[in-house]
Amino acid sequence: MFTLAHISDVHLGPLPDLTFLELLSKRITGYVNWRRNRGKQLFGNTLERLLEEIVTAQPSHLAITGDLVNLALNFEMDAAAQWLHAFHRPHDVSVVPGNHDAYVPGALDTAVKLWKPWMSGDTPRDDQHVFPYLRVRQNVALIGVSTATASPPFMASGYFGPNQARRFERLLKETGERGLFRVVMIHHPPIRGATPNYKRMIGIRRFHAAMHMDGAELVLHGHTHLNTTHWIQGHNGRVPAVGIAAGSQSFGGRKPPAAYNMFHIDGEKGRWSLRKERFSLEADGDTFSRDHEEVLLGP
Length: 299
Fold this sequence. Notes:
Layout: E1 2-7, H1 20-23, H2 27-41, H3 46-57, E2 61-65, H4 74-85, E3 93-96, H5 107-114, E4 133-137, E5 140-144, E6 158-159, H6 162-177, E7 181-185, E8 201-202, H7 204-214, E9 218-221, E10 228-233, E11 238-243, E12 259-266, E13 273-281, E14 288-297
Parallel strand pairs: 1-2, 2-3, 5-7, 6-8, 7-9, 9-11
Antiparallel strand pairs: 1-12, 4-5, 10-11, 12-13, 13-14
Helix pairs in contact: 6-7
């Protein structure tokens, strides 16, 4: 049995004071949004309690699907690297970037550099491309895909381009032939209509084409701050695409409170079983309890 915990959109904070020069970019819109909305709904000790629960559960691996920071300030990027260092070891934690991690031009390069131990494959690539990356743990293939890109003000869209799509398809084929259970980690939901237009993923058709050609067993995403399960047509049937609430969302906001999913993976190629448990923050703001359980694959 392989157990995989999933969190997303932790939005580490609070934000430091910004200089005038730092505000002369898309960051000014994000800063205003933070002051009006997000700063009131995130943090406290919610994320700390969430991680305590996961550590106690002792999963085989932890997947974090993006938006570790808010405005991609240098201070935030360094703080996120220190936060990641607090985990036991990079071998057990896999990260993909979100749109907030690439908030302004150049930010994604910084994220890749600082977070590389948690955001790279087992084998160094020889083609200078970071994504998609591949990690194999037991009989599970963890495939990290990036949709993170700097977007104009008032936009939060992601991009999945043709070059990455071709590399992604090859990885799906290779890991499928090896008989591995394939988990795809991505920030933006690869589902049409899952988000407003300004937050959509550009390149959904490419993603679906690769999935239809070679398939996978599970897709994990963030971005929406919602607990959802959609289905994508894969090579041999439907594939669950699962989203999760923001990891630092306090109780009583407009979006669901912080939650994490625990996936239980067992079996072998052609006979996989996949069970999902969701644990959500309760009204006391301190307790996480199981509020949903679902069999996604198998008997």
